[in-house]
Amino acid sequence: MLKFKTSGVCAKEIIFEIEDDIVKSVDFVGGCPGNLVGIKALVEGSHIDDVIARLSGISCGKRKTSCPDQLSKALAEYKVKIKTKA
């Protein structure tokens, strides 16, 4: 399980698991429960690159980011860390 501290959104943290470039699980700490359960249901089982492409850049009201955007940032950061280890 990996943890990502969010910035600029209601959710405080995203906890996720990746296996063979597939998003196995996602949990948000804080935030809007219904929306975040929906995001979880939509992205689990998806390829990491597809999730990043779909969610990157989504804003929330006047905010320049959102919980989906923060998830895309968490996954992109994970990919950079994995490539650095390889």
TrEMBL record:
Transmembrane segments: none annotated. Its EC number is 1.17.4.1. Signal peptide: none annotated. It is an enzyme of class 1 (oxidoreductase). It catalyses: a 2'-deoxyribonucleoside 5'-diphosphate + [thioredoxin]-disulfide + H2O = a ribonucleoside 5'-diphosphate + [thioredoxin]-dithiol. It comes from the Bacteria. Keywords: DNA synthesis, Nucleotide-binding. Pfam families: TSCPD. Residues 5-78 form the TSCPD domain. GO terms for molecular function: nucleotide binding; ribonucleoside-diphosphate reductase activity, thioredoxin disulfide as acceptor. The keyword Acetylation does not apply. GO terms for biological process: DNA biosynthetic process. Belongs to the ribonucleoside diphosphate reductase class-2 family. This is ribonucleoside-diphosphate reductase. The lineage of its organism: Bacteria, Bacillati, Bacillota, Clostridia, Peptostreptococcales.
